[in-house]
Amino acid sequence: MANIVNLKEYLRRVFKDLKEYTDGLSPEELEEFHEKCRNLFKNGEGDYSDRYLLAYYVMEYARAYGFEFSRAYTDILARILKSKKEVSSVSFGCGTGIDYWGMSHAARVILRNDKVSLSYTGIDPANWAYKISDSPDMPAGDQVDINSIHDPAGGDGCRCSDFGEYLSLMESDRSRKLPDIYFFPHSLKEVCLHTVPDGGAEQYRYNAYQSMARFSGLIGSRLEKGETLYIAVTYRRKPQGLEHYHAYDTRYATYLVDCLTRRELKVSQLKPGHITRPGYQDMEIINDTEENKKYYFRYEQNHFYTGKRCADGEKLELWQMGNDDFGSFDKLFYGEDNSPAITDVQTWIDVVGRNLHSMDNVANMCYQVFKIRANEHDDAAIQNAYLYGNESVDMVEKALRTFEFPIEKDRLSLRAMVYNLHKHLESQDMHEQITDKVIINMESIANGLIDDGLLQADIDDDCVTYNETVLGNQMGVYVYKDRNGRNAVGLDSFAQQSVVANLVSGGYLKVRSDGDERRS
What we know:
Blueprint: H1 7-23, H2 27-38, H3 51-80, E1 86-92, H4 98-110, E2 117-123, E3 143-146, E4 148-149, E5 158-159, H5 163-172, E6 181-185, H6 188-193, H7 210-222, E7 228-235, H8 243-246, H9 248-251, H10 254-262, E8 265-269, E9 284-287, H11 290-293, E10 304-307, H12 318-321, H13 345-352, E11 366-374, H14 380-399, E12 411-413, H15 414-427, H16 431-435, E13 438-439, H17 442-451, E14 455-460, E15 463-468, H18 470-475, E16 477-481, E17 487-492, H19 493-504, E18 510-511
Parallel strand pairs: 1-2, 1-6, 2-3, 6-7
Antiparallel strand pairs: 4-5, 7-11, 8-11, 9-10, 12-17, 13-18, 14-15, 16-17
């Protein structure tokens, strides 16, 4: 058998702990616990600090997530293991570390490589119980660290528990190397929010996109010529309808891809390879729907996902896609002589107060894997121009990290937005330094909105008249008459965030050339 944590026995231990807890509850306490289980995601996010609610969550989702993560890792490792015997991964929002299990399953079971050495760093603001790495059958040769980053000089690791801390640590110490893989296990939107100042209720005052622009800057500054990096992003479901303009960019990877390509990095989306292990079905590419595509405003590519195409109503379960010798993807209520069932249906209902709602159907699963390479420009002048441009964008990104959106106004004119941006740069004592390198004005932003199809412009005798577009309305860009009767552009709260997102990634601004007049 492969040298890997036995997922079924891991779940058996979790359920044993959960059942022992509920056996000790009074009828009233048990009913209260059942109610908590039923409402675990009532507010959109579970309470991961409660050990026994977490045990319920693990029982529901670990198998499905382990399967999905293993397939994303398979697509990457099938390429990496052709030339390397040691592989490193950093996972943001790692939870129990179930994606480490997926990494191990991909390498040692699906790809049948027992010689690989895995180095895994999981980062999560919450201190999760039931960590995979605490299992008694952990492979001895693997290095697994949770919320601790290795010291390249060999000293004690540095404490690091969220995405913002990781970025700061890597930016401050260039001796720390990038890993082979960055993994976002259903966490891309959450880790963006973890990096804004004054978290909690104040998060919406800041730009949640910022961290992805900053992340792309880190990668662009460290990825050497000829080096390759992989980024995997997994999703709870395929994007649907209106998500594509008010939640799409932070929940899904399109904005990150845009940031990377604007830095002249070569980004390609991987297609799943063929799995030769007997009994394992391949994943496949699923193109996004035509209905969804009308909501795109900038991103022309990377709108396909790796998943499994299923007919409406078809239920293709995990174990049908493949299973290891341990029965990792078996239903909780299924067992064989060498691996008995974890529990039975009635005991499960007695413990948690509801039927099993685990994500058995692979039709709900999708992920994207991106290969990132540094561009290899031989022309020194071109290379220097890109470096200068990236340095300028880095300055803008850093200066706008604490830019606040006016919470008392959902709508703001473009003119007022530009004024607020420049006042913020002045407050950071960076106005002259930045405007000496880049142009940020109404014209540059309006041109960006026009290029993205969010605004139209008619020019007559050097007079510009702006007009709305359908897509612009969906994104919160509108046209109105100001108090002087002049044609003006307005932005709602989401459009304001979109403008800042484009500025910090290098769009909607112009890097100055020698011939540009120095004015804001």
